[in-house]
Amino acid sequence: MDNVLFEFYRGDTYSRDFSISGWSREITKVYFTVKENLKDKRAVLQKTLEDGITLVEDVDGTKIYHLEIESTDTDKMKENVDYIFDIEMHSRGVGSEVFKRTIITGILRLKASA
């Protein structure tokens, strides 16, 4: 899923569910990463399964995850700027092989407070 827009007020808590389906291997990691530019090495915001992403349902091969961005996570981000984000999952392959797959890309935009 590409060109998704996450838009909310800077300083607000934001949450959203997303799903992964049709993947038979065990999903070991999920990352939500926000950057100013595609080429940036450093993320301005990142959430993981251990911090901000929760598996809420796993039924018939569809896993539903809940992403929560805390109000303080956007403190150092600018308003009315289009940041890029992706959601990437990792799963185990044979031996030590790791499969990585980007499942969602889009824009995160913080609106100015009224």
Q: How would you spell out the order of helices and strands?
A: EEEEEEEE
Helix content: under 10%
Strand line-up of the largest beta sheet? 1-8-7-3-4
Question: How many β-strands, per DSSP?
Answer: 8
Q: Low-confidence runs (pLDDT<50, min 5 residues)? A: none
C-alpha-based Rg, rounded: 15 Å
Beta fraction: over 45%
Mean pLDDT: 92
Distinct helical segment count: 0
| Alpha-beta content class | mainly beta
Q: Give the overall shape.
A: globular
- End-to-end span in angstroms? 31 Å
Task: Please summarize the sheet with the most strands.
Answer: 5 strands, mixed
What labels would you give this structure?
114 residues, mainly beta, five-stranded mixed β-sheet, 59% strand, globular
Q: How does this model look, in words?
A:
This protein is mainly beta. Helix content is 0%, strand content 59%. The chain is built from no helices and 8 strands. It has a 5-stranded mixed β-sheet, with no helix packed on it. The protein has a 3-stranded antiparallel β-sheet with strand order 2-6-5, with no helix packed on it. It is globular and about 50 Å long.
